[in-house]
Amino acid sequence: MTGITDHLGEIRARMARASARAGRPGGAVTLVGASKGQPLAAVRSGLAAGLRDFGENYLQEALPKIAAGDRDAVWHFIGRIQSNKTREIAANFAWAQTVTSVRIAQRLSAQRPQHGNPLQVCIQLEPGSAKEFGAAVGEATRAGCPRGEVRALADHIAKLPRLRLRGLMLLPQAGLDADALREEYRAARTLFDQLNARGHTLDTLSMGMSDDFEMAIEEGSTMIRVGTALFGKRP
User: Fold this and answer.
1) Comparing C-alpha atoms, which of 189, 192, 191 is closest to residue 218?
2) S-S: 57 plus which of 36, 144, 204, 208, CB 3.0-4.6 Å?
3) 53-65 confidence digits (pLDDT tens)
4) DSSP tally for the chain: helices H, then strands E
5) CB neighbourhood size of 100 (10 A)
6) Which residues of 107-137 are buried (b: 16+ CB within 10 A; e: fewer)?
7) How far is Cα of residue 112 from the mean position of the Cα atoms in its chain?
8) Cβ distance 196 to 158 under 8 Å?
9) 120: β partners
10) Could you give the CA distance from residue 168 to residue 148 in angstroms, rounded to a whole number?
């Protein structure tokens, strides 16, 4: 894990340069270490290097890390949320970035412990939805809320007592060329701005990973999820 400190410094430098190119202030983007498939030692090395936010895709892999990790760590659930997993996600994570339906949102709110802070949530957008994002349609699309349903879902989440709607999350379709990917990011930013214009107070646009986070920052991302570039290949 000796390279994590160096990798973290390199990524932060690239984040700063991308922010500068977009005319954005330094420190405007949060780095989430996507620690899926990484051992607890990698998380501890990240914490020692100054990283505080970690993203996990699989509940059963994440829970031992959370239990053994530093209290200062902020845990984000970034995988697909199954109905039978909502109770443990609501109890153990600070963020759930992949809310895609009213049903999942209602379960998370009802199951969030009363003694803690509200669960911070993002709506995961369906990528390339009905060509609304301007992206090429590939063989399959990833999970997400169709763009036409996002406004209604946001309005509903805003009324739930144990959730705080922070913004939108996008996991783009694999295999897009640079132009299509940039267009998809721009469309997500447009929807983000439209929701705020309707009265929401969103502050988080979670998009960008190891291969494309600089482009995502240029197009308005406020949170990137980086795994391989930070931790190296998964064991």
Assistant:
1) 189
2) 36
3) 999 999 999 999 9
4) 9, 8
5) 21
6) bbbeebeeeeeebbbbbbbbbbbeeebebbe
7) 19
8) no
9) 95, 164
10) 14
The per-residue pLDDT for range 83-107, each reduced to its tens digit, is 999 999 999 999 999 999 999 999 9
Angle (CA) 57 58 60, round 5°: 155
Q: What is the pLDDT, as a whole number, of residue 45?
A: 95
pTM to 2 decimals?
0.93
104 lies in which domain range?
A: 4-230
Q: Does 119 score more than 70 pLDDT?
A: yes
Residue 137 is classified by DSSP as: P
Residue 41 resides in a domain:
yes
CA distance 49 to 47: 5
Residues written for the chain: 235
In a domain, residue 98? The reply is yes
SS3 61: helix
109 vs 86: CA distance, rounded Å: 9
| Cβ contact 78:94 at 8 Å | no
Can you tell me whether residue 175 is helix, strand or coil? coil
- Are the C-beta atoms of residues 169 and 123 closer than 8 Å to each other? yes
The domain tally of the chain equals 1
Task: Report the distance separating Cα 79 and Cα 95, nearest Å.
Answer: 11
Given phi > 0 = left and psi -120 to 50 = alpha, else beta, which region is 208?
Answer: left
Domain contains 182: yes
Residue 61 lies in a domain: yes
CATH number at residue 178: 3.20.20.10
